[in-house]
C-alpha cells in the first residue's frame, strides 16, 4: 500500500480542546490502531474535534475505531464532533445507522464551538 494513502493525522491541542485533522484512508490496519492509541493518550480534553473532510476511504475498521474513540470521549466526559465528513462518509454513517450516534458539525459550527460561543440560528427569526 502507498504510504501517502495511509491514514495521516495531526493533533492540535489548545487548553481543553483537541482538534484532529485526518486525511487518507481510515481503514483497518496499523495506522488506524496507532490513531486510536494516540487519541486515548490525550489528557484533560473537554471537546474532541475530528476533521474528517480529507478522508478518502472508510471501512468497518474505521467505523469501529470511531466508535471506540467516541466511547473513550464519553468515559472522559468529553464531547466528540465529526467535522465536514465527505458525502461517501455520511452515506456510510447513514447505511450503518450511526448518524444518530455521532455529532456531525460543519466547519463553521466547529469554529463557534472552539470559540466557546453559540452559533447564530440557521433560520431567520421573525
| Residue-averaged pLDDT | 88
Quaternary status of these chains? single chain
Helix-strand topology string: EEHEHEHEH
Please provide the count of β strands: 5
What is the fold-level CATH name, i.e. the topology?
Answer: Transcription Regulator spoIIAA
Classified in CATH, the superfamily is: STAS domain
What structural category do the secondary elements indicate? alpha/beta
Low-confidence stretches: 122-126
User: Roughly how many Å apart are the termini?
Assistant: 55 Å
Query: How is the biggest beta sheet arranged?
Result: 5 strands, mixed
Query: How are the strands ordered across the major sheet?
Result: 1-2-3-4-5
* Percent of residues in helices: 25-40%
Q: What percent of residues are in strands?
A: 25-35%
Number of domains: 1
Principal-axes shape call: globular
Question: Would you kindly provide a written description of the structure presented here, covering whatever features stand out?
Answer:
This protein has 126 residues and is of the alpha/beta class. The protein has one domain (3-115): Transcription Regulator spoIIAA (2-Layer Sandwich), CATH 3.30.750.24. The chain has helices at 30-40, 60-75, 87-95, 107-115, and strands spanning 8-14, 17-26, 47-58, 79-83, 103-105. The protein has a five-stranded mixed β-sheet with strand order 1-2-3-4-5. A hairpin with a 2-residue loop joins β1 and β2 (17-26). The model is unreliable at 122-126 (pLDDT under 50).
Amino acid at each position: 500500500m502507498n504510504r501517502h494513502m495511509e491514514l495521516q493525522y495531526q493533533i492540535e491541542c489548545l487548553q481543553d480542546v483537541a482538534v484532529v485533522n485526518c486525511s487518507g484512508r481510515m481503514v483497518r490496519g496499523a495506522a488506524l490502531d496507532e490513531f486510536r492509541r494516540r487519541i486515548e493518550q490525550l489528557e484533560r480534553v473537554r471537546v474532541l474535534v475530528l476533521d474528517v473532510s480529507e478522508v478518502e476511504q472508510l471501512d468497518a475498521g474505521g467505523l469501529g475505531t470511531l466508535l471506540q474513540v467516541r466511547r473513550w470521549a464519553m468515559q472522559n466526559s468529553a464531547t466528540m464532533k465529526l467535522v465536514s465528513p465527505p458525502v461517501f462518509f455520511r452515506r456510510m454513517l447513514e447505511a450503518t445507522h450511526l448518524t444518530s450516534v455521532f455529532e456531525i458539525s460543519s466547519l463553521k459550527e466547529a469554529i463557534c464551538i472552539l470559540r466557546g460561543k453559540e452559533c447564530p440560528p440557521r433560520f431567520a427569526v421573525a
